[in-house]
Write a structure and sequence with these properties.
The complex is a heterodimer of chains A (178) and B (653).
Chain A lengths: L2 H21 L20 E2 L9 E2 L8 E6 L4 H16 L4 E6 L6 H9 L5 E5 L3 H5 L7 E5 L5 E6 L4 H16 L2
Parallel strand pairs in A: 3-4, 4-5
Antiparallel strand pairs in A: 1-2, 3-6, 6-7
Chain B lengths: L1 H29 L2 H5 L1 H24 L6 H6 L6 H6 L5 H22 L5 H25 L25 H4 L1 H25 L4 H32 L10 H26 L3 H24 L12 H25 L14 H31 L8 H21 L10 H7 L1 H17 L4 H26 L3 H6 L2 H25 L2 E7 L4 E4 L2 E12 L4 E11 L2 E6 L2 E5 L4 E5 L1 E4 L3 E11 L2 E10 L1 H19 L2 H5 L4 H8 L4
Antiparallel strand pairs in B: 1-10, 2-3, 3-4, 4-5, 4-6, 6-7, 8-9, 9-10
Helix pairs in contact in B: 1-3, 1-7, 3-6, 6-7, 6-9, 7-9, 7-13, 9-10, 9-11, 9-12, 10-11, 10-21, 11-12, 11-14, 12-13, 14-15, 15-18, 17-18, 18-20, 20-21
The chains are: A alpha/beta (178), B alpha+beta (653).
Chain lengths: 178, 653
C-alpha cells in the first residue's frame, strides 16, 4: 500500500496539536462573540398555536429589535419572563420570540397565556432550526439586532434590569441614532 | 510523616519507571535476557511504590489532615467516610495520582501474569508502559503534587469540602471505572508499540492484546454508564447524555476500543488487518489521553472542567503530542511492512467486521470533529458551539447500517461467505423487525420514523444475535456446553446493545415532562400516573439541609409508590443540589424533582421516562458479555504452538 497513507495520521495529529497549542490559555467561556456583527441568518418559522403570524428573519429589518429564545421547559426563562413583560409595557423595543424545542404544541401558548405575552411575533422552533442558526447554547438567550438585520449583541442567560440599564439600553439608543 | 512517605514513594516510582523504560528496551534490542527480565520485577515494584503513595494520600483524607493543601481544599470533617475516600480522586491532583496508579496496575498485572508472553514482546511492552508512566509521574510531581503542605501557621481548622454534586455513590465510583478503562487501553498501546518495534504482529500478539483491551473496555463501559446514570438522577432534569465535550472524550475511546476489540479478532483468527489493528490501538489510547487533556487544560468549556490551569495544559499537551505523534511516526515508518496475511472477500466475517470497524471509526471521527470544531472555529476567530442536534443528525444515522450489519455479520463464515443463506436464516427476524416497527408506529404519536427505526433496530439486532446462537447450538445442552465462552460473550454483549438501543429510543424520544407549581393536596398526571403532593417538609442531613416533597403516585386509583425528591443545600460549599426521586419499572421511570417555593406551592418537575432502565440493564449485559469472554479458555492457556507461528511470521519481516 502507498506509504503516504501511513503518514496521514501523523500529519493530522501534528496539525491538531498546533491548533491546541494556539488555543491554550484562552478563555473558552467567552462565547459572546458568536455571529456578532453578522447578518441574522435567514429563517422562516411557523406561528405557535393560537397565533396567525410566524416569525421570519425579514421581520427584523427596519427597526432595532430584541430577539429572545425561550421555552416553556426552561426554568431560567420563567425567571426572566416578568422582566420581558415589563419591557413590553415600557415600549422600549419590540421583542421577537423563538419558542425553542417544545415537545408539546400547546405548551408554549399555555405558558404565554399564563405568564403574559411580551412578544410582537413568536416563531415555533421545535427542531432548533433558527436556534442553531443563531448559535444558541442554551435558553434563555437574547440578541439585539439593528435596522439592517445585523446582530449587535448577545446575552446568555436571563436578562436582568442591571444588564438592561448598563449595556442594552445604551446600545439600543446608540443604534437608533443615525 | 505518612504524607512525606507518599511523596517520597512517588519520586522513587519515577526512578523505577525511568529504569524500566530503558533497561528492558535495550535488553530486547541486544538480546540480553537478564536486562529483559528486569521489566517484570520493575513493573511490580512500580505498582507497589505508586500504591504506597496513593495509600498515603488516602490516609491524609481519611484522617482529615488539613495540613495537606489538597485535603484542605477538597475535604471536610463532616463528610461521610465514603466521600472522604472518594474525595481523594474528586480533584485534579488526586485523580492524576489515581491515573498513575492504574497505569502501574496494568503494567504490574502484565509483569505478574505475563509469564508465557514472548520475552522480547513483554520486555518492550513493559518498557513502553513505563515511558508513559514517566511522563505522567513527571506531570504529577512537577505540576500537580497532591502532597503539598500548607505552612503550619496557616493550617485551617476545617476543609473547604467537596463539590456537593460529586457527593454521590454513583459518582464516587465513576472516575475509578472510567480511568480503569482509559488507562487500561495503555496496555493495548504498549503492545502495539512493542509490535511495531519488533516489526511483527501475529495471532499470538492479538491473543495477548485482546484480553487487556477487553478488560479496559468493560471498565470503560461501566464508567460511562455510571456517569450517565449519575447525570440522569443527580442533575435532576431527566437527561442522560448531553454530547458534552467531556462525555465525548470518554465516548471516543469507547468507540475506538470497540473497533479495536473486533479488528484484533481478525488478526487472531485470520492474520489480517494487522496495520489497521495497530493503528486502532494507538488511536484508542491517544483518544484516552486527549480526554485527559480536554478535561484539564481548559481549552473547551464543559460542565466537567475541574482544573483549568494553562501550565498543566501545556504539560499535558506536550505529553500528548510526544506520545501520539511519536507513536504515529513509528507507525508511518514500520506500519507499511506489516503485510496482510489472510485475504478475504467483501462478503465474509472479516468483511462485516471491517465494515463495522470503518463505520465506528467514521463515528469516532464525527464525534471528534463535533467536539473540536468550536476550537477549530475559534482559532479562526469565529465562535460556534456544536450541540446535540449535530451529533444526533450525523452520528446516529451512521449507527443504523452498523446495527443492521451487526445482525448479519456473526452468521457469515470467515474468508468467504454467501449473503443469501445468512439472509434466509434471518427472514423470520426480518418479519419480527417489521412487525415491531409497525407496532411502534401504531403506538407512538411523535418522532414516528425515528421511533420505528430505533425499536426495529433493537429487535433486528436481538433477533439476529439469537438466530446465530440458535444456529450454533441448535439449543442442545451438549452443544451449549461446548460453546466457547467468547461466543457466549459475543451473544450477550450484542444482546445487551440491543436492549440498550431500545432503552435509548424510549428515553430519547418518548420522554414526557411537566413543570408546574403544586400546592399540598394537588394532583398532577403524567404517563398514566396520578401524582399527589402530600406535603413538603424540611429535614437535616449529615452535612446539608434538605427540603423534601412527598408524592404518592397512583395508577387507576391504586397506590404504586411514594416518591420523596429532595432539594439539598450544602452550607459549607453554599451550593444546592436536587435529589430526584425515581421509581424504576420495566416500562420506564417515574421521576420527580422538587424545586423552589413559589407562592404557596413549590415548582415541581415530573417526568415519565419510558424504557430508561433498559439502557443501564443493556450496559450491564454488555459488560457481562465482555467479562464472560475474558474468562475464555484460550486466554488462560496462552499462545498456541510457537514453532508454527514463528514459521508463519518469518516472511512478514
Amino acid at each position: 500500500m502507498q506509504r503516504w497513507i501511513y503518514l496521514l495520521p501523523l500529519i493530522m495529529v501534528l496539525g491538531l496539536g498546533g491548533l491546541f497549542w494556539s488555543q491554550l490559555g484562552k478563555d473558552p467561556h467567552r462565547i459572546d462573540s458568536v455571529l456578532i456583527n453578522q447578518e441574522v441568518p435567514p429563517f422562516d418559522l411557523p406561528p405557535i398555536k393560537g397565533r396567525t403570524e410566524g416569525f421570519a428573519s425579514a421581520d427584523l429589518l427596519g427597526q432595532v429589535t430584541l430577539v429572545n429564545i425561550f421555552g416553556s421547559w426552561c426554568i431560567a426563562c420563567r425567571a426572566e419572563h416578568g422582566f420581558l413583560v415589563d419591557i413590553k409595557a415600557s415600549r422600549e423595543v419590540p421583542i421577537y420570540g423563538i419558542d425553542w424545542r417544545e415537545k408539546d404544541r400547546d405548551a408554549g401558548p399555555a405558558w404565554l397565556a399564563r405568564f403574559g405575552d411580551p412578544y410582537t411575533r413568536v416563531g415555533d422552533d421545535p427542531d432548533s432550526k433558527a436556534a442553531i442558526a443563531f448559535g444558541v447554547t442554551g435558553a434563555p438567550e437574547s440578541f439585539i439586532v439593528d435596522q439592517r438585520g445585523i446582530i449587535r449583541y448577545k446575552h446568555i442567560g436571563p436578562l436582568t434590569p442591571e444588564v438592561w440599564t448598563r449595556t442594552i439600553r445604551p446600545l439600543i439608543e446608540e443604534l437608533r441614532t443615525p | 510523616m505518612i504524607t512525606e512517605i507518599g511523596h517520597f514513594a512517588l519520586i522513587l516510582a519515577l526512578c523505577v519507571a525511568i529504569a524500566q523504560s530503558v533497561v528492558p528496551m535495550v535488553g530486547a534490542q541486544r538480546g540480553n535476557t537478564a536486562w529483559m527480565d528486569f521489566a517484570a520485577p520493575a513493573s511490580i515494584g512500580q505498582l507497589f511504590l505508586v500504591g504506597v503513595s496513593f495509600a498515603a494520600l488516602t490516609h491524609a483524607y481519611v484522617t482529615s489532615d488539613f495540613s495537606v493543601l489538597n485535603v484542605a481544599a477538597n475535604s471536610h470533617t463532616d463528610k461521610p467516610m465514603l466521600y472522604k475516600v472518594s474525595g481523594v480522586w474528586g480533584n485534579h491532583e488526586g485523580s492524576m495520582l489515581l491515573w498513575v496508579l492504574i497505569l502501574a496496575l496494568f503494567g504490574g498485572a502484565v509483569g505478574m501474569f505475563g509469564r508465557n508472553l514472548p520475552p522480547g514482546l513483554k520486555a518492550r511492552a513493559l518498557a513502553v508502559q513505563a515511558m508513559v508512566a514517566v511522563g505522567f509521574l513527571l506531570f504529577v510531581l512537577f505540576t500537580s503534587n497532591p502532597f503539598e503542605r500548607i505552612p503550619a501557621e496557616m493550617v485551617p481548622l476545617n476543609g473547604r469540602g467537596l463539590n456537593p454534586l460529586l457527593q454521590d455513590p454513583g459518582l464516587a465510583f465513576h472516575p475509578p471505572f472510567l480511568y480503569l478503562g482509559y488507562v487500561g487501553f495503555s496496555m493495548a498501546f504498549s503492545f502495539a508499540i512493542a509490535a511495531l518495534i519488533e516489526g511483527r504482529v501475529d495471532a499470538a500478539w492479538a491473543r495477548w492484546v485482546r484480553p487487556w483491551t477487553l478488560a479496559a473496555w468493560c471498565f470503560l463501559t461501566v464508567g460511562i454508564a455510571l456517569g450517565s446514570w449519575w447525570a440522569y438522577y443527580e442533575l435532576g432534569w431527566g437527561g442522560w447524555w448531553y454530547w458534552d465535550p467531556v462525555e465525548n472524550a470518554s465516548f471516543m475511546p469507547w468507540l475506538a476500543g470497540t473497533a479495536l476489540l473486533h479488528s484484533a479478532l481478525v488478526v487472531e483468527k485470520r492474520d489480517g488487518l494487522k496495520a489497521w489493528t495497530v493503528f486502532l490501538a494507538i488511536v484508542t489510547f491517544g483518544l484516552s489521553l486527549l480526554g485527559t487533556f480536554l478535561v484539564r487544560s481548559g481549552v473547551l468549556s464543559s460542565v466537567h472542567a475541574f482544573a483549568t490551569d494553562p501550565t498543566r495544559g501545556v504539560f499535558i499537551l506536550a505529553l500528548l503530542l510526544i506520545t501520539i505523534a511519536g507513536s504515529l511516526a513509528l507507525f508511518a515508518w514500520r506500519g507499511p511492512s506489516m503485510k496482510a496475511g489472510g485475504l478475504f472477500q467483501p462478503i465474509s466475517r472479516e468483511g462485516s467486521l471491517l465494515f463495522n470497524n470503518l463505520l465506528m471509526s467514521v463515528g469516532t471521527a464525527t464525534v471528534l470533529l463535533g467536539t473540536l470544531f468550536p476550537l477549530l472555529a475559534q482559532a479562526f476567530d469565529y465562535k460556534v458551539s456544536v450541540g446535540p442536534p449535530f451529533f444526533n443528525s450525523v452520528f446516529v444515522p451512521l449507527m443504523v447500517p452498523m446495527i443492521v450489519a451487526m445482525g448479519i455479520g456473526p452468521l457469515l463464515s470467515w474468508k468467504r461467505a454467501d449473503l443469501m443463506p445468512a439472509l434466509k436464516r434471518l427472514w423470520f427476524v426480518a418479519a419480527m423487525t417489521l412487525g415491531a416497527a409497525a407496532l411502534t408506529g401504531v403506538m407512538v404519536g411523535e418522532y414516528l420514523v425515528m421511533s420505528m427505526v430505533g425499536i426495529g433496530l433493537a429487535v433486528w439486532l436481538a433477533g439476529g444475535t439469537l438466530a446465530e446462537f440458535v444456529g450454533r447450538t441448535r439449543l442442545s445442552p451438549k452443544r451449549m456446553a461446548h460453546t466457547p465462552r467468547s461466543a457466549w460473550g459475543m451473544t450477550l454483549a450484542h444482546l445487551g446493545l440491543a436492549v440498550a438501543i431500545a432503552g435509548m429510543t424510549g428515553a430519547g424520544l418518548w420522554e414526557q415532562e411537566r413543570v408546574l407549581v403544586m400546592r399540598t393536596g394537588e394532583t398532577a398526571s403524567i404517563g398514566g400516573f396520578d401524582l399527589t403532593l402530600d406535603g413538603v417538609d424540611s429535614r437535616p442531613g449529615p452535612n446539608y439541609e434538605a427540603t423534601r416533597g412527598t408524592f404518592t403516585a397512583r395508577r387507576d386509583g391504586d397506590e404504586v409508590v411514594v416518591l420523596t425528591p429532595e432539594k439539598r443545600i450544602y452550607p459549607v460549599e453554599g451550593r444546592p443540589t436536587s435529589e430526584a426521586a425515581i421509581h424504576s419499572m420495566l416500562a420506564g421511570d417515574l421521576y420527580a424533582v422538587i424545586g423552589d417555593p413559589q407562592g404557596d406551592g413549590h415548582v415541581v418537575r415530573l417526568y415519565w421516562n419510558p424504557l430508561v432502565p433498559w439502557m443501564w440493564v443493556g450496559c450491564l449485559i454488555m459488560v457481562a458479555g465482555g467479562t464472560l469472554s475474558l474468562t475464555d479458555r484460550r486466554y488462560r492457556i496462552g499462545a498456541p504452538r510457537r514453532s508454527r507461528l514463528r514459521a508463519a511470521a518469518q516472511p512478514a519481516e
